[in-house]
Design goal:
It is a single chain. This protein is of the alpha/beta class. About 35% of the residues lie in helices and about 20% in strands. It has 2 domains: about 50 residues, no CATH class; about 180 residues, Rossmann fold (3-Layer(aba) Sandwich). The protein has an 11-stranded mixed β-sheet, sandwiched between helices. Bound molecules: S-adenosylmethionine and zinc ion. The site of zinc ion (ZN) has 8 residues, from loops.
Length: about 280
Protein backbone atom coordinates (compact mmCIF):
# COMPACT_ATOMS: atom_id res chain seq x y z
CA UNK A 1 0.00 0.00 0.00
CA UNK A 2 1.52 3.35 -1.02
CA UNK A 3 1.61 6.26 1.45
CA UNK A 4 -1.15 7.88 -0.59
CA UNK A 5 -3.57 5.02 0.11
CA UNK A 6 -2.70 4.13 3.72
CA UNK A 7 -5.44 4.53 6.38
CA UNK A 8 -3.22 7.16 8.03
CA UNK A 9 -3.81 9.37 5.01
CA UNK A 10 -7.51 9.40 5.87
CA UNK A 11 -6.85 9.95 9.57
CA UNK A 12 -4.74 12.97 8.59
CA UNK A 13 -7.48 14.22 6.27
CA UNK A 14 -10.26 14.24 8.88
CA UNK A 15 -10.41 18.02 9.11
CA UNK A 16 -11.45 18.17 5.45
CA UNK A 17 -14.22 15.60 5.83
CA UNK A 18 -17.74 15.45 7.20
CA UNK A 19 -20.38 12.80 7.61
CA UNK A 20 -22.50 12.54 4.44
CA UNK A 21 -25.56 11.80 6.62
CA UNK A 22 -25.45 14.38 9.41
CA UNK A 23 -22.65 16.79 8.31
CA UNK A 24 -20.78 16.40 11.62
CA UNK A 25 -17.01 15.92 11.72
CA UNK A 26 -15.15 12.62 11.35
CA UNK A 27 -12.48 11.24 13.68
CA UNK A 28 -10.00 8.33 13.29
CA UNK A 29 -11.21 4.95 14.64
CA UNK A 30 -8.97 1.92 13.96
CA UNK A 31 -8.75 1.38 10.17
CA UNK A 32 -11.83 3.55 9.74
CA UNK A 33 -13.25 7.01 10.41
CA UNK A 34 -16.22 7.56 12.69
CA UNK A 35 -18.80 10.34 12.67
CA UNK A 36 -18.67 12.41 15.85
CA UNK A 37 -22.41 13.09 15.52
CA UNK A 38 -24.30 9.95 14.44
CA UNK A 39 -21.34 7.56 15.09
CA UNK A 40 -21.60 5.92 11.67
CA UNK A 41 -18.23 4.42 10.73
CA UNK A 42 -16.60 4.66 7.34
CA UNK A 43 -14.10 1.97 6.39
CA UNK A 44 -11.00 2.45 4.33
CA UNK A 45 -11.43 -0.15 1.60
CA UNK A 46 -8.47 -0.88 -0.72
CA UNK A 47 -7.19 2.55 0.25
CA UNK A 48 -10.46 4.28 -0.72
CA UNK A 49 -12.56 5.92 1.98
CA UNK A 50 -15.95 4.23 1.68
CA UNK A 51 -18.85 6.62 2.43
CA UNK A 52 -21.28 4.92 0.08
CA UNK A 53 -24.91 4.52 1.14
CA UNK A 54 -26.97 1.58 -0.16
CA UNK A 55 -27.46 2.52 -3.80
CA UNK A 56 -30.90 3.05 -5.31
CA UNK A 57 -32.45 4.16 -8.61
CA UNK A 58 -30.16 5.34 -11.40
CA UNK A 59 -27.08 5.25 -9.19
CA UNK A 60 -27.53 1.52 -8.55
CA UNK A 61 -27.94 0.72 -12.26
CA UNK A 62 -25.07 3.00 -13.22
CA UNK A 63 -22.68 1.57 -10.59
CA UNK A 64 -23.49 -1.97 -11.79
CA UNK A 65 -22.77 -0.90 -15.36
CA UNK A 66 -19.40 0.69 -14.54
CA UNK A 67 -18.43 -2.31 -12.40
CA UNK A 68 -19.30 -4.68 -15.28
CA UNK A 69 -17.48 -5.79 -18.47
CA UNK A 70 -20.00 -3.71 -20.49
CA UNK A 71 -18.24 -0.41 -19.76
CA UNK A 72 -14.92 -1.40 -21.41
CA UNK A 73 -16.96 -2.52 -24.44
CA UNK A 74 -18.91 0.77 -24.58
CA UNK A 75 -15.67 2.68 -24.13
CA UNK A 76 -14.78 1.98 -27.76
CA UNK A 77 -17.62 4.35 -28.70
CA UNK A 78 -16.34 7.03 -26.33
CA UNK A 79 -12.90 6.62 -27.93
CA UNK A 80 -14.49 6.80 -31.40
CA UNK A 81 -16.31 10.05 -30.52
CA UNK A 82 -13.03 11.51 -29.27
CA UNK A 83 -11.28 10.32 -32.43
CA UNK A 84 -13.76 12.29 -34.53
CA UNK A 85 -12.90 15.30 -32.40
CA UNK A 86 -9.13 15.25 -32.74
CA UNK A 87 -8.33 12.44 -30.28
CA UNK A 88 -8.99 12.01 -26.56
CA UNK A 89 -6.51 14.57 -25.25
CA UNK A 90 -7.71 17.26 -27.60
CA UNK A 91 -11.40 16.44 -27.01
CA UNK A 92 -10.94 16.60 -23.22
CA UNK A 93 -8.89 19.79 -23.50
CA UNK A 94 -12.08 21.58 -24.64
CA UNK A 95 -13.36 20.94 -21.10
CA UNK A 96 -10.11 21.41 -19.19
CA UNK A 97 -9.40 24.78 -20.81
CA UNK A 98 -12.08 26.16 -18.48
CA UNK A 99 -9.78 25.28 -15.54
CA UNK A 100 -6.59 26.99 -16.71
CA UNK A 101 -4.87 27.59 -13.36
CA UNK A 102 -4.79 24.23 -11.60
CA UNK A 103 -1.14 24.27 -10.44
CA UNK A 104 -0.94 24.26 -6.62
CA UNK A 105 -4.76 24.05 -6.41
CA UNK A 106 -7.02 21.57 -4.62
CA UNK A 107 -9.42 20.06 -7.18
CA UNK A 108 -12.37 17.72 -6.67
CA UNK A 109 -13.41 15.51 -9.57
CA UNK A 110 -16.91 14.18 -8.98
CA UNK A 111 -17.40 10.82 -10.77
CA UNK A 112 -13.67 10.62 -11.47
CA UNK A 113 -13.99 7.13 -12.96
CA UNK A 114 -10.63 5.70 -13.95
CA UNK A 115 -9.03 9.13 -13.97
CA UNK A 116 -8.94 9.83 -17.70
CA UNK A 117 -8.68 13.58 -17.04
CA UNK A 118 -5.60 13.24 -14.82
CA UNK A 119 -3.08 13.49 -17.68
CA UNK A 120 -4.44 17.00 -18.31
CA UNK A 121 -4.09 18.09 -14.67
CA UNK A 122 -0.70 19.41 -13.50
CA UNK A 123 1.13 17.19 -10.99
CA UNK A 124 1.23 20.00 -8.41
CA UNK A 125 -2.60 20.03 -8.27
CA UNK A 126 -3.96 18.12 -5.27
CA UNK A 127 -6.67 15.89 -6.73
CA UNK A 128 -9.54 14.39 -4.75
CA UNK A 129 -11.94 12.06 -6.55
CA UNK A 130 -15.23 10.43 -5.65
CA UNK A 131 -17.10 7.74 -7.59
CA UNK A 132 -19.71 5.03 -7.03
CA UNK A 133 -17.72 2.33 -8.87
CA UNK A 134 -14.88 0.63 -7.01
CA UNK A 135 -13.65 -0.94 -10.27
CA UNK A 136 -13.26 2.56 -11.76
CA UNK A 137 -11.47 3.82 -8.65
CA UNK A 138 -9.03 0.91 -8.87
CA UNK A 139 -8.43 1.80 -12.52
CA UNK A 140 -7.81 5.38 -11.48
CA UNK A 141 -5.13 4.39 -9.02
CA UNK A 142 -3.53 2.05 -11.58
CA UNK A 143 -3.41 4.84 -14.13
CA UNK A 144 -1.40 7.07 -11.78
CA UNK A 145 0.19 4.83 -9.12
CA UNK A 146 2.69 7.49 -8.03
CA UNK A 147 0.24 10.35 -7.76
CA UNK A 148 -1.03 11.13 -4.23
CA UNK A 149 -4.72 10.94 -5.11
CA UNK A 150 -7.39 10.95 -2.42
CA UNK A 151 -10.12 8.67 -3.73
CA UNK A 152 -13.50 8.02 -2.10
CA UNK A 153 -16.29 5.61 -2.84
CA UNK A 154 -19.49 7.63 -2.58
CA UNK A 155 -22.29 9.50 -4.31
CA UNK A 156 -22.22 12.87 -6.05
CA UNK A 157 -25.44 13.77 -4.23
CA UNK A 158 -23.87 13.53 -0.75
CA UNK A 159 -20.31 14.76 -0.78
CA UNK A 160 -18.46 14.03 2.49
CA UNK A 161 -16.42 17.25 2.36
CA UNK A 162 -16.36 20.43 4.40
CA UNK A 163 -17.84 23.60 2.90
CA UNK A 164 -15.60 25.66 0.59
CA UNK A 165 -12.61 23.30 0.72
CA UNK A 166 -11.84 23.02 -3.00
CA UNK A 167 -10.45 25.65 -5.34
CA UNK A 168 -12.41 24.13 -8.21
CA UNK A 169 -14.76 21.22 -8.94
CA UNK A 170 -14.88 19.16 -12.14
CA UNK A 171 -17.27 16.46 -13.30
CA UNK A 172 -17.12 14.79 -16.73
CA UNK A 173 -19.35 12.17 -18.29
CA UNK A 174 -21.81 11.44 -15.50
CA UNK A 175 -24.11 14.39 -14.71
CA UNK A 176 -27.15 13.49 -16.83
CA UNK A 177 -27.87 10.24 -15.03
CA UNK A 178 -27.09 11.10 -11.42
CA UNK A 179 -30.10 10.22 -9.24
CA UNK A 180 -30.43 13.94 -8.50
CA UNK A 181 -28.43 16.31 -10.74
CA UNK A 182 -29.72 19.43 -8.91
CA UNK A 183 -28.64 18.07 -5.54
CA UNK A 184 -25.24 17.04 -6.92
CA UNK A 185 -24.71 20.54 -8.34
CA UNK A 186 -25.74 22.02 -4.96
CA UNK A 187 -23.13 19.82 -3.32
CA UNK A 188 -20.45 20.92 -5.79
CA UNK A 189 -21.41 24.55 -5.04
CA UNK A 190 -21.21 23.92 -1.29
CA UNK A 191 -17.71 22.44 -1.35
CA UNK A 192 -16.10 24.92 -3.77
CA UNK A 193 -14.51 28.12 -2.47
CA UNK A 194 -16.21 31.42 -3.31
CA UNK A 195 -14.98 32.43 -6.76
CA UNK A 196 -13.89 28.87 -7.62
CA UNK A 197 -15.11 27.29 -10.84
CA UNK A 198 -17.53 24.43 -11.28
CA UNK A 199 -17.09 22.68 -14.62
CA UNK A 200 -19.56 19.93 -15.56
CA UNK A 201 -19.51 18.21 -18.94
CA UNK A 202 -21.51 15.37 -20.43
CA UNK A 203 -23.24 14.36 -23.61
CA UNK A 204 -26.47 16.18 -24.47
CA UNK A 205 -29.34 14.18 -22.96
CA UNK A 206 -31.30 14.38 -26.22
CA UNK A 207 -28.77 12.30 -28.19
CA UNK A 208 -31.29 9.40 -28.55
CA UNK A 209 -33.58 11.79 -30.46
CA UNK A 210 -30.89 11.99 -33.12
CA UNK A 211 -30.73 8.23 -33.72
CA UNK A 212 -32.14 6.72 -36.90
CA UNK A 213 -34.99 4.81 -35.19
CA UNK A 214 -36.41 8.03 -33.70
CA UNK A 215 -36.28 9.70 -37.08
CA UNK A 216 -38.11 6.91 -38.93
CA UNK A 217 -40.58 6.14 -36.11
CA UNK A 218 -38.94 2.89 -34.91
CA UNK A 219 -37.90 3.59 -31.28
CA UNK A 220 -37.35 -0.16 -30.70
CA UNK A 221 -34.47 -0.02 -33.17
CA UNK A 222 -32.77 2.66 -31.07
CA UNK A 223 -33.31 0.62 -27.92
CA UNK A 224 -31.63 -2.35 -29.58
CA UNK A 225 -28.73 -0.21 -30.78
CA UNK A 226 -28.14 1.27 -27.31
CA UNK A 227 -28.72 -1.87 -25.30
CA UNK A 228 -27.00 -4.50 -27.49
CA UNK A 229 -24.86 -2.83 -30.11
CA UNK A 230 -23.43 -0.12 -27.81
CA UNK A 231 -23.40 -2.60 -24.86
CA UNK A 232 -25.28 -0.29 -22.48
CA UNK A 233 -27.69 -3.04 -21.43
CA UNK A 234 -31.50 -2.76 -21.01
CA UNK A 235 -31.53 -0.95 -17.65
CA UNK A 236 -29.06 1.78 -18.57
CA UNK A 237 -30.90 2.15 -21.90
CA UNK A 238 -34.13 2.74 -19.92
CA UNK A 239 -32.42 5.52 -17.96
CA UNK A 240 -31.12 7.19 -21.11
CA UNK A 241 -34.60 6.94 -22.65
CA UNK A 242 -36.24 8.55 -19.62
CA UNK A 243 -33.81 11.50 -19.62
CA UNK A 244 -33.94 12.38 -23.30
CA UNK A 245 -36.00 15.52 -22.56
CA UNK A 246 -33.95 16.64 -19.55
CA UNK A 247 -33.36 20.41 -19.63
CA UNK A 248 -30.03 21.68 -18.37
CA UNK A 249 -30.72 25.41 -18.00
CA UNK A 250 -33.27 25.22 -15.15
CA UNK A 251 -30.92 22.96 -13.18
CA UNK A 252 -27.96 25.27 -13.62
CA UNK A 253 -30.01 28.43 -13.01
CA UNK A 254 -31.25 27.04 -9.70
CA UNK A 255 -27.74 26.66 -8.29
CA UNK A 256 -25.00 28.62 -10.08
CA UNK A 257 -24.11 32.22 -10.74
CA UNK A 258 -22.26 33.59 -13.73
CA UNK A 259 -22.76 30.42 -15.71
CA UNK A 260 -22.55 29.50 -19.35
CA UNK A 261 -23.20 26.30 -21.24
CA UNK A 262 -20.77 25.62 -24.08
CA UNK A 263 -21.24 23.07 -26.83
CA UNK A 264 -18.61 20.35 -27.22
CA UNK A 265 -17.52 17.91 -29.90
CA UNK A 266 -19.66 19.19 -32.78
CA UNK A 267 -22.72 19.51 -30.58
CA UNK A 268 -22.55 16.01 -29.09
CA UNK A 269 -21.70 17.27 -25.61
CA UNK A 270 -22.05 20.27 -23.33
CA UNK A 271 -19.87 21.94 -20.76
CA UNK A 272 -21.37 23.95 -17.92
CA UNK A 273 -18.98 26.53 -16.44
CA UNK A 274 -20.13 28.54 -13.45
CA UNK A 275 -19.57 29.73 -9.92
CA UNK A 276 -21.31 28.82 -6.73
CA UNK A 277 -24.03 31.15 -5.46
CA UNK A 278 -22.88 31.72 -1.89
CA UNK A 279 -24.41 33.36 1.14
C1 LIG B 1 -18.27 7.92 -18.28
S1 LIG B 1 -17.50 7.69 -16.69
C2 LIG B 1 -16.55 9.21 -16.62
C3 LIG B 1 -15.28 9.05 -15.85
C4 LIG B 1 -14.33 10.25 -15.91
N1 LIG B 1 -14.90 11.40 -15.23
C5 LIG B 1 -13.97 10.60 -17.33
O1 LIG B 1 -14.05 11.78 -17.69
O2 LIG B 1 -13.57 9.70 -18.07
C6 LIG B 1 -18.83 8.05 -15.52
C7 LIG B 1 -18.43 7.79 -14.09
O3 LIG B 1 -19.42 8.39 -13.25
C8 LIG B 1 -19.59 7.59 -12.11
N2 LIG B 1 -20.88 7.96 -11.50
C9 LIG B 1 -22.09 7.87 -12.06
N3 LIG B 1 -23.06 8.30 -11.23
C10 LIG B 1 -22.43 8.72 -10.10
C11 LIG B 1 -22.88 9.28 -8.87
N4 LIG B 1 -24.18 9.50 -8.62
N5 LIG B 1 -21.96 9.59 -7.94
C12 LIG B 1 -20.63 9.37 -8.17
N6 LIG B 1 -20.15 8.81 -9.30
C13 LIG B 1 -21.04 8.50 -10.27
C14 LIG B 1 -19.51 6.18 -12.67
O4 LIG B 1 -19.27 5.21 -11.70
C15 LIG B 1 -18.37 6.33 -13.69
O5 LIG B 1 -17.12 6.02 -13.12
ZN1 LIG C 1 -23.05 11.36 11.03
Amino acid sequence: MTPATAPSLWADSCHWLQCPDCAQGLAPADAALACTGCHRTFRVRDGFLDVMPPLTGNNKVVAEFYDSPNWPKFRFWEWFTFLLNGGERRARSHIMKHLPHLAECRLLEVAIGDGANLPLIPPSCEVWGIDISIIQLRGCRQRCPDRPLRLLLGEAEKLPFRDSMFDHVLSVGAFNYFNDPVQSLREMARVVKPGGRIVVADEYPDLPNRLIGHRIGLPQLDRWVMSRFLHLGPEFTDIIDRHRDMKLEPIVRAVLDDWQIYSLWHNVGYCIVGQARKG
